[in-house]
UniProtKB/TrEMBL annotation:
<feature type="compositionally biased region" description="Acidic residues">
    <location>
        <begin position="315"/>
        <end position="326"/>
    </location>
</feature>
<feature type="domain" description="CN hydrolase">
    <location>
        <begin position="6"/>
        <end position="272"/>
    </location>
</feature>
<dbReference type="GO" id="GO:0000257">
    <property type="term" value="F:nitrilase activity"/>
</dbReference>
<dbReference type="InterPro" id="IPR003010">
    <property type="entry name" value="C-N_Hydrolase"/>
</dbReference>
<feature type="region of interest" description="Disordered">
    <location>
        <begin position="304"/>
        <end position="326"/>
    </location>
</feature>
<protein>
    <submittedName>
        <fullName>Aliphatic nitrilase</fullName>
    </submittedName>
</protein>
<dbReference type="Pfam" id="PF00795">
    <property type="entry name" value="CN_hydrolase"/>
</dbReference>
<dbReference type="InterPro" id="IPR000132">
    <property type="entry name" value="Nitrilase/CN_hydratase_CS"/>
</dbReference>
<dbReference type="InterPro" id="IPR036526">
    <property type="entry name" value="C-N_Hydrolase_sf"/>
</dbReference>
<dbReference type="InterPro" id="IPR044149">
    <property type="entry name" value="Nitrilases_CHs"/>
</dbReference>
<dbReference type="InterPro" id="IPR023919">
    <property type="entry name" value="Nitrilase"/>
</dbReference>
<comment type="similarity">
    <text>Belongs to the carbon-nitrogen hydrolase superfamily. Nitrilase family.</text>
</comment>
Length: 326
């Protein structure tokens, strides 16, 4: 049974750029470390497994073929032995885990967020609805079916990736489902200090507007990894800073000093009673809403490329039972 206080962990670590096996090992080690510190809810960065496609930000399209194929080869299929390993770790330690992966679905890649409940079940698989700028060379688009809040051992959990937080209707879709803990994901080590500052503003605003806790995780690259991605010092500048791993209360306050550089696991206790304290004054989807004037149309149907004909589902009529007028 959920208690009034949930201990959350936001993980800022570097991936293993050689592939998913090494990064999954880092995920499992971080789950164990956070759980040892009492964490019940653990969030990892955007597309952390096997790694975020930093190459797409610094390479022209004509040079992206080889690294894109490498990413496809190391991407995660859902379900797979890799997702099962994370599920087993969640079940063993009794923790809820939110993990960003590059998901391979046959010939396409997607920016996917996975929510594993504390019993190891996969509570949610959702895909980023619109890849941002350079990411459109790498990932396909998600759909409205993934804009869903799920019940977990720690409460109602929703998730968005990176600039999805700049889509107010996507955020509102989760707010209308009364999320209590929001998992945010960003790549980290990208753009520079301005990205770090923008992330902080965005995470604090969502917490305030939705009246929920926000647990946000950004990635990290070492200097050796940055040099591995691109040798040009001028372009390497685009892969530094931009980290804001933070945990925010429904009142918009940091619950621990954010991690903006290096690796680490941020830990904070979430007093779930603060949700009611905030929403008593301002519930954006309740008493503070004006649905007769403003409301959201959310198409929750999965986007599919094949629709089977229903003709073969209509039973054949017995000619002797034909009652058609002559």
């Amino acid at each position: 049974m959920r208690t009034d206080t949930i201990r959350a962990a936001a993980v800022q670590i570097a991936p293993d750029l050689s592939g998913r096996a090494g990064t999954i090992e880092r995920v499992l080690n971080a789950i164990a470390e956070a759980a040892d510190k009492g964490a019940q809810f653990i969030v990892f960065p955007e597309t952390f497994v096997p790694y975020y496609p930093y190459f797409s930000f610094v390479l022209p399209p004509v040079q992206q073929g080889a690294p894109h194929l490498d990413l496809m080869a190391e991407a995660v299929v859902v379900p797979s032995p890799e997702t099962q390993a994370v599920a087993d770790a969640a079940r063993k330690r009794g923790v809820v885990v939110v993990l960003g992966v590059n998901e391979r679905d046959h010939g396409s890649l997607y920016n996917t967020q996975l929510v594993f409940d504390a019993d190891g079940t996969l509570a949610l698989k959702r895909r980023k609805i619109t890849p941002t700028y350079h990411e459109r060379m790498v990932w396909g688009q998600g759909d409205g079916a993934g804009l869903k809040v799920v019940d977990t051992a720690v409460g109602r959990v929703g998730a968005l990736a990176c600039w999805e937080h700049y889509n107010p209707l996507a955020r509102y879709a989760l707010m209308t489902q009364h999320e209590e803990i929001h998992a945010g994901h960003y790549p980290g080590s990208l753009v520079g200090d301005i990205f770090r500052d923008q992330i902080e503003v965005t995470m604090r605003h969502h917490a305030l507007e939705s009246g929920c806790f926000v647990v946000n995780s950004t990635g990290w690259l070492t200097e050796e990894q940055i040099a591995q991605i691109h040798p040009d010092p001028a372009l390497q500048k685009a892969m530094r800073s931009g980290c804001m791993t933070c945990i925010i209360s429904p009142e918009g306050r940091h619950l621990a000093d954010p991690i903006t550089t290096g690796e680490g696991i941020l830990i904070a206790d979430l007093d779930m009673r603060l949700i009611a304290k905030r929403k008593r004054m301002m519930d954006s989807v309740g008493h503070y809403a004006r649905p007769e004037m403003l409301s959201l149309l959310h198409d929750t149907r999965p986007a599919v490329t094949r629709h089977a004909s229903r003709a073969d589902q209509v039973p054949e009529m017995d000619p002797e039972e034909d009652t058609t007028d002559v």
